[in-house]
Design a protein that fits this description.
Blueprint lengths: L15 H5 L5 H8 L3 H7 L14 H13 L4 H10 L1 H6 L11 H11 L3 H17 L7 H4 L13 H19 L15 H17 L6 H15 L13
Helix pairs in contact: 4-5, 5-7, 10-11, 10-12, 11-12
C-alpha cells in the first residue's frame, strides 16, 4: 500500500548536517530547490493505494536511483555509501542515525516499478530539467553522459558494458595483488554467452580472493554482477537510426 503522507523524521542530531554538508554542495542545492513530488504522481499507479502493508515512498527510492546515476554506483554501492556519507543522507531526507534501505529493495523497485524503459528516463530528465531551471545544474551531461541509464539512445551494447565493467574489476584486483590468477578474457569475436560465462568466472575468482571486501573491488564486482543480473534490453544497441 502506498501512503500519500511522507514521514517526518525528527532527530537531536540533525544540526550535524549544517556542520558537515556545505551550503553550496550540489546535493543540498538539489534537495532544497527541486520539488520531487512529481515522482509520486508519476508512479502512484504502480502501487495499490488502499491495501497491503505500507511501502517505501517512491520519492525516497527514486532519490537513491538519482544518487546511483549521479555517482555511477551499483545498487549495493549507493546504499552502502548512504550509510556513512552525510551528504547522501541529507539528500535522502534521513536523520543522521536513521537506517538505510536494503539494496534488494532498490533492485526490486528498479525492476518491478520501472519496468517500462521510458519511465526512468522520464523521471531523470524531469529532475534534470527542474535542476537546470533552478540554476543547480548547468546542463544535463552530469547525469546522462556519464552513467548507464536505460535510455533508448544508449549506444553501448551489453557485451561492451560487460567488457568495460570486467576490465575495471581486473584492474582493481591487479592493483591489490599483481600475482593473482585471473581468467583469460574471450577473444574479440566471442559471443555474448561466452562473455557472460567469463564474467561469472571472474566474479567467482573475486569471491575466493582475500581482497573481495576491499571497497574498490567490492563496488566494481557489484557493478559487474548488476549488469549480468539485469536481463533487460537497456544494454542492447539501439535499432533506431537516430
Amino acid at each position: 500500500m502506498l501512503s500519500s503522507q511522507l514521514k517526518l523524521s525528527l532527530s537531536y542530531y540533525s544540526d550535524l548536517y549544517d556542520m558537515i554538508v556545505p551550503k553550496d554542495h550540489i546535493l543540498r542545492k538539489i534537495r532544497e530547490l527541486v520539488d520531487f513530488s512529481f515522482i509520486y504522481d508519476e508512479l502512484k499507479n504502480k502501487y495499490c493505494l488502499d491495501n497491503g502493508r505500507n511501502a517505501k515512498t517512491p520519492i525516497l527510492l527514486f532519490k537513491y536511483l538519482l544518487l546511483k546515476y549521479l555517482y555511477n554506483l551499483s545498487d549495493n554501492g549507493v546504499v552502502e555509501r548512504s550509510r556513512y556519507d552525510m551528504s547522501f543522507k541529507y539528500f535522502l531526507e534521513l536523520t543522521p542515525e536513521e537506517e538505510v534501505i536494503h539494496p534488494s529493495l532498490l533492485t526490486k523497485f528498479r525492476k518491478q516499478r520501472l519496468k517500462d524503459e521510458n519511465i526512468l528516463d522520464l523521471l531523470i530528465n524531469k529532475s534534470v530539467e527542474l535542476a537546470i531551471n533552478q540554476g543547480v545544474l548547468k546542463s544535463n551531461t552530469i547525469i546522462v553522459d556519464s552513467t548507464h541509464t536505460e535510455a533508448r539512445y544508449h549506444k553501448t551494447t551489453q557485451r561492451e558494458m560487460l567488457k568495460k565493467a570486467s576490465t575495471s574489476l581486473k584492474a582493481a584486483l591487479k592493483d591489490s595483488d599483481k600475482d593473482i590468477y585471473l581468467p583469460d578474457e574471450p577473444e574479440k569475436r566471442a559471443s555474448l554467452d561466452e562473455y557472460n560465462e567469463y564474467c561469472h568466472e571472474l566474479l567467482n575468482t573475486v569471491q575466493e580472493s582475500p581482497y573481495s571486501e576491499l571497497p574498490t573491488i567490492k563496488e566494481e564486482s557489484s557493478m559487474l554482477s548488476e549488469i549480468l543480473d539485469n536481463q533487460i534490453d537497456c544494454y542492447d544497441q539501439s535499432i533506431d537510426p537516430d
